[in-house]
Amino acid sequence: MTIMTHCVEETEALGERLAEKLSGGEVMAFTGDLGAGKTAFTRGLARGLGITDRVTSPTFTIVNEYEGGRLPLFHFDMYRLGSSDELYDIGWEDYRARGGVCAVEWSEIVSDALEGEVIRVDIRSGSGENERGITLTGVEL
Fold it and tell me: What DSSP designation does 119 have?
């Protein structure tokens, strides 16, 4: 299913709507160009989980943890990793065991570590400045 959004707020709202479907333990694999809206979608996801913390890109920290909502959110950015071995080195299995939602930006870098059922979120720029085509696979809204 592909959904078009026309502004950052609509992208966030789609993430918020998806959060309602989550029960814990999900892995969300994000793909899309730099600046496509992966972090904006994750901000909405956090809001939908009841997390009130400011959500920022974990580009330099690799993972940001958000608690305080109905489920914890672990927001990963794999852009600076060379392989899935590095993901395991930072405790991937421990994060998975905590039963929260793992949102993984640049998931294609660690695709071999994303086993089992994965919700795929591909975000691409549209024809307008803030237009995005967001394709969701592995979940129904």
Answer: E
